[in-house]
UniProtKB/TrEMBL annotation:
Keyword Transcription carried by entry: no
Signal sequence coordinates: none
Gene3D superfamilies: N-terminal domain of ligase-like
An example Gene Ontology molecular-function term: ligase activity
Full protein name: Phenylacetate--CoA ligase family protein
InterPro entries: ANL_N_sf, CapK_Type1_Caps_Biosynth
Keywords recorded for this protein, A-Z: Ligase
Lineage top rank: taxon: Bacteria
Length: 461
């Protein structure tokens, strides 16, 4: 049968109720997951236990271990990776100095996507044919995509990190999770059962494949959530924010899950507040990249401490680079786990600050990405500055998007229940004369970019 058989909504409803819910969770965590791990020749649970041991150590000890691992990673790259052999060898770089002087790291040139695309196989420590590997392509929402190759150990660590972070947010493997994924036009209905179905069962996970975020599409999403009743929902904040706005408009408030885990996009404070209040859930934030995996997470379960950088997975820096806007810094990472394609001082393109506290490293002041800079009448403006004007001087706006592909740029606006289109248009014109063509739309009309259909405040050519 196909996955759209009419029996499945009933089975979803049944699996979300007791005692089936508990039995399914126990079977997934203690039977199906170990079986799947053996079938796929993965070693995730051992690495999960290793993470628990690591983060029980005092931060001072973890920081010392991170510095040693940084030196080990650079030494390995210089020995095994042709690009780093040439680049670091030509400047006489000595990785042993990093063990006592972390400032020496600044001598390593920054790595960019352009360099990754240009160097290709010269960034690999061994030929791909020699060992199992996993190819990951960046999403394309931050410019031209590039290909990252993970070895088996790195892929297993990445999976363990997700399990560890969700455990810290209060979600065990016995509790169900739901993943939002984009439904593209023309996608065939998959048969059931499939390998993906067993994978989802082993992870106690289900998927929602959504299309349009209009009223009908949001009603369909809400009905599915009500049937399945997952503990944790994982998806883009813009999607769940659109759902929260729809539920607030149609029924005030509603509850279908305990935790929302945001990823893939920058989650703004206004989105977080609306999601938590309307959908009556805890909101946890995470920061990850296709190039490195999850690098920061609300390890306190979204209770206000902020995103903690995972010192077990890489070395994190924030730097004022040549094209960062005034007052902001770019996030730069060195990966620890991926020995097939180690990335040293990789420029993420994301803006934020690495802050050291007594209990760890934290990611703060995350405001967007380098290309979220909008030229207004020839003067560059950061997206968050435009958002502040729209929120506090224009008003009545629920969401916005600037499309730079038109001339002048198109400012798409979703009006909230208290907004007035004529007032918004006149205020925008008053602040930025002749800078935008204002277009009033619904959430479903906002442009999504990249192969994961991410929402961006700025759409570039």
């Amino acid at each position: 049968m196909n996955a759209d058989h009419p029996i499945f909504p009933y089975l979803e409803w049944l699996s979300g109720r007791q005692p089936v819910r508990t039995l399914k969770g126990l079977t997934s965590a203690y039977l199906a997951y170990p079986v799947a791990e053996r079938m796929e020749q993965r070693q995730v649970r051992g690495k999960l236990a290793e993470l628990h041991r690591h983060y029980r150590k005092p931060f001072a000890e973890r920081l010392r271990l991170a510095r040693q691992q940084l030196a080990d990673t650079v030494a390995f790259a210089m020995k095994a990776v042709p690009y780093y052999k040439d680049t670091l060898g030509s400047i006489g770089f000595d990785p042993e100095r990093l063990r006592t002087d972390i400032g020496y790291l600044q001598d390593i040139p920054l790595l960019t996507k352009d360099i990754i695309r240009e160097q290709g196989d010269r960034l690999l420590s061994r030929p791909l044919a020699e060992a199992p590997h996993f190819t990951c392509k960046t999403g394309g929402s931050t410019g031209l995509s590039c290909v990252i190759e993970y070895d088996q150990i790195a892929a297993d660590h990445a999976a363990a990190v997700v399990l560890y972070c969700r455990k810290m947010a209060g979600k065990s493997q016995r509790q169900s999770e739901l993943h939002f994924a984009c439904r593209f036009p023309g996608d065939p209905v998959p048969p059931w059962p499939s390998r993906e179905d067993f994978k989802c069962f082993a992870m106690n996970r289900s998927n929602i494949f959504f299309g349009a975020l209009d009223a009908a599409g949001l009603d369909e999403i809400w009905a599915t959530l009500q049937r399945r009743r997952p503990y944790l929902v994982h998806g883009h904040p813009s999607t769940i924010y659109a759902l929260a706005c729809h539920i607030e408009k149609t029924q005030g408030k509603g509850k279908a899950f305990a935790v929302f885990e945001s990823s893939g996009e920058l989650m703004e404070d206004y989105q977080r507040k609306k999601i938590a209040e309307v959908l009556q859930c805890r909101v946890v934030n995470r920061y990850g990249l296709a190039e490195l995996g999850v690098m920061a997470y609300d390890l306190d379960g979204g209770r206000g401490q902020g995103m903690q950088l995972l010192d077990s997975e890489g070395w994190s820096e924030s730097l004022a680079t040549d094209n960062t806007p005034d007052g902001h810094q770019e996030l730069v990472f060195t990966s620890f786990r991926n020995r097939l394609m180690p990335l040293l001082r990789y420029r993420s393109g994301d803006l934020g600050r690495v802050e050291q506290r007594v209990n760890g490293l934290f990611l703060t002041e995350v405001v967007g990405r380098l290309h979220d800079i909008v030229p207004i009448n020839g003067t560059p403006h950061a997206t968050h500055h435009i958002q502040d004007v729209l929120d506090h001087r224009v008003g009545g706006i629920q969401e916005f998007q600037i499309d730079l592909r038109s001339s002048p740029p198109t400012l798409r606006v979703v009006v909230d229940s208290h907004g007035n289109e004529a007032h918004i248009a006149s205020r925008v014109e008053a602040f930025w004369p002749s800078a935008f063509r204002v277009e009033f739309v619904q959430h479903g009309d906002l442009v999504r970019v990249g192969r994961h259909a991410k929402f961006r405040h700025v759409v570039t050519p």
